[in-house]
Amino acid sequence: MSAEGQIEDPESRTSNGASPQVEVFERHVRPPHLGEEFRALLALAIPVVLSELGWMTMTIVDLIMVGRLGPDAIGAVGLGNAIYYAPSLFGIGVLLGLDTLVSQSWGAGRFDDCHRSLAQAIYIALAFTPVLMIAMLAAERIFTGRGVDPTVATLTRSYVSILNWGTFPLLVYGGFRRYLQGVARVRPVTFALVSANLVNLVFNWIFIYGHFGFPALGVAGSALSTVFARIYMAAVLVYAAWAHENGRGHPLFARWPRPDWIRIRALLQLGLPAASQVVLEVAAFGAATVMASHLTPIALATHEIVLSCAAYTYMVPLGISAAAAVAVGHAIGAGNPARARRAGLLAIGLGAGFMALMAVLFLVVPAPIIHIWTRDRSVVALGAHILAIVAGFQIFDGIQTVSTGALRGLGETRFPMLMNFAGYWILGLPFGALLCFRLHWGLSGLWTGLTVSLILIAVVLSARWIADSGRSLVVQAGHRS
Predict the structure, then answer these.
(1) Rounded to whole angstroms, how far apart are CA atoms 406 and 404?
(2) Distance CA 419, CA 124 (A)
(3) 3-class DSSP state for residue 253?
(4) Which end of the chain, N or C, is less packed with Cβ atoms under 10 Å?
């Protein structure tokens, strides 16, 4: 909206800073060539994919840089990140409702609505931060208790206690990231994460080893570096959002909205199921890791390596999923459900196509991939077998991930949560445990169970997307008649 509260013409946005490619999803006029829509989707997806890869790289850099301190330090940082991961993901996930509200408001030209949604998300972040920080401290005490090496436990508690102070900047980053993606400004998000990796690297070098007069803090220095990197990421995105809106003549902070309980409730209705879905999925693979820990050391090492491979390939459809949510939201906001449907199908096809290539890679060259981590013959032999199973679910993983994003663009987050619960926790994990321990399939059984989960979730979510996006077309046709 303009200052007078009037809805602006979506066709005027190119001069106001929106990408001409992204505008494809907002037009009410002629249907563009399919290639034009595909290029527009790539313009949204590629920067977000790079951001997801940058997010994962930061944790790996921390592990590498504390590696010189010895196995206790590596174990502490790994355990500390595992403790911090699920609560922080839940906090970021709660803000996923911004994908729906901001992208649909932007597509409809209701710019002030975008600002109001962002403000309410920051209020949610303020409220959730102390809850998450307390949860992490409690988890730290629980998971560093009996059975954990005392040195590793002490280092882990120090690491998590410091890392906890980065929770609010992390949520601010998450909120502004979703806002910027919703208004089709994705490049600042990529810049923030790529440059934050450099910030993290430099501060790791300073604080872990002690340079420029600072004491060598070891594991605590790695946590402190991560906190500074998260403050930096939040600051970059706050500035990017302010600069973008100020340039369009819609100052972001000129009239910062007060708490709007109706909008907060709408964000939570979308965000809480989305956050739960993310945690259910992450926890499922965590549960598989716990089960793998009851097998041989070779099996556990193989499981960790294969899980890392699957996590890396997953980052790409995860980025495409975010782009799908934005593209679908823009089209729905612009009153163009036909374009929303095409955007979702294109995104699902893109995600499945990439994962098909990864499946071929896992099947053709498993040994060189595993050699990145180890050359142990037993691990390489078992890993090649498990990677073949992982190859079997790659396409389905891409489909279910992107379908979740496309449905979020429509405003549907509850159904994917329920499907993740049913697919992983009712079917896949029990089935995998049965194959692993009762039928003595070992690690192959666990990953077969996960594969069955992903196939089921992919089939049901893609079918739900086709049905829901088709229903939007029927509703529009009814309104026109």
Answers:
(1) 6
(2) 26
(3) coil
(4) C
Q: Which residues of 81-155 form beta strands (DSSP E)?
A: none
Q: On the CB side of 414, how many CA atoms lie within 13 Å of its CA?
A: 4
Q: Model confidence over 9-47: pLDDT tens digits?
A: 333 344 444 444 445 555 544 555 677 778 888 887 888
Q: Of 223, 77, 227, 238, nearest to 166 (Cα)? A: 227
Q: Count Cα atoms within 13 angstroms, Cβ side, for 1.
A: 10
Give the integer Cα–Cα distance in Å for 2 and 479. 28
pLDDT digit string, tens, across residues 212-229: 888 888 889 999 999 999
Cα distances (angstroms) measured from residue 433 to each of 389, 438, 481: 16, 7, 54
Burial of 441: CB neighbours in 10 Å, binned 0-12, 13-18, 19+: middle
In a domain, 264, yes or no: no
* CA dihedral (464, 474, 348, 333) positive or negative: negative
Query: Other C-beta atoms within 10 Å of 190: how many?
Result: 19
Residue 112 maps to a domain: yes
Report the helix count and the strand count for the chain, using DSSP H and E: 16, 0
A 10 A CB-CB count for 439 gives 9
Evaluate whether residue 293 is within a structural domain. yes
* Other Cβ atoms within 10 Å of 404 Cβ, number: 31
The CA angle 230-234-240, to the nearest 5 degrees, is 145
C-alpha to C-alpha distance for 185 and 45, rounded to whole angstroms: 11
> CA end-to-end span of the chain, whole Å?
29
**Residues 298, 181: one domain?**
no
Q: What are phi and psi of 411, to 5 degrees?
A: 100, 15
Amino acid identity at 325:
A
Report the predicted TM-score, pTM, of the whole model to 2 decimal places.
0.81
Q: Are 423 and 394 in contact (CB under 8 A)?
A: no
CA distance 474 to 471: 5
Do 238 and 308 have their domain in common?
A: no
Q: CA nearest 180: which of 268, 89, 90, 118?
A: 118
The residue segments making up the domain with residue 179 are 50-259
Q: Is residue 280 within 8 Å of residue 91, measured between CB atoms? A: no
